[in-house]
């Protein structure tokens, strides 16, 4: 028995409405906006999760050349720790500083002063070059080289920092009194002068020989 034309038409209408349902859903502007917002939210969440995974992996990597325990527990070097420990000034360091002023600063007995100077102040000069007197130590014709006051700034087992003077020149020489910063360092088991510069103040002349 064949279906009637009316039944066939009803069946086709149902099939048509069923297949066209998705198109009808998307045809609504309001529903299209909803779908767009949902898609955007999913994308944002996905990117956030991806970045979170990458960053967490990167922060968990140990530092190059060591492990986390080593990096976290590393502290100041032993040299810096030793320098920060204040101790009474060394009598030997004082003696080296005094002899340096009496020789290198006065330009006397330069062979002796050469043995009292560290590498920073010596600047790679040979003894023959040092003997000529053109050395990186500012000269000063002090009449009080043997008695000039030494003021201790810091004192440790490896370094003594002093203010020397002021040194005073002979009266009538036209040379003004001048103090100096002097560092004596423990290098290779010996006390050596490794820093010597005048204590200039703003507005003062850099050359004590000028009036």
Word description of this protein:
This protein is an alpha+beta fold and 211 residues long. The chain folds into 2 domains: 5-59; 84-198, Nuclear Transport Factor 2, Chain: A (Roll), CATH 3.10.450. The chain contains 9 helices and 4 strands, in the order αααααααααββββ. It has helices spanning 5-19, 21-26, 29-59, 68-73, 78-84, 91-105, 110-114, 119-122, 127-131, and strands spanning 150-155, 159-167, 178-187, 190-198. The chain has a 4-stranded antiparallel β-sheet. β3 and β4 (190-198) form a beta hairpin. The N and C termini lie far apart (135 Å). Mean pLDDT is 74; it is low at 5-12, 14-22, 58-83 and 203-211.
Quickly list its features.
single chain; 211 residues; alpha+beta; Nuclear Transport Factor 2, Chain: A; 2 domains; four-stranded antiparallel β-sheet; 9 helices; 4 strands; rod-shaped; disordered C terminus
Short description:
The protein has helices spanning 5-19, 21-26, 29-59, 68-73, 78-84, 91-105, 110-114, 119-122, 127-131, and strands at 150-155, 159-167, 178-187, 190-198. With 211 residues, it is α+β, with helices and mostly antiparallel strands.
Write the layout of secondary structure elements.
Blueprint lengths: L4 H15 L1 H6 L2 H31 L8 H6 L4 H7 L6 H15 L4 H5 L4 H4 L4 H5 L18 E6 L3 E9 L10 E10 L2 E9 L13
Antiparallel strand pairs: 1-2, 2-3, 3-4
In this structure, how is the largest beta sheet organized?
A: 4 strands, antiparallel
How many helices? The count is: 9
User: How helix-rich are the residues, as a percent range?
Assistant: 40-55%
Strand content: 15-25%
The tally of strands reads 4
| Rg estimate, integer Å | 43 Å
Anisotropy-based shape: rod-shaped
Secondary-structure arrangement, i.e. CATH architecture of the largest domain:
Roll
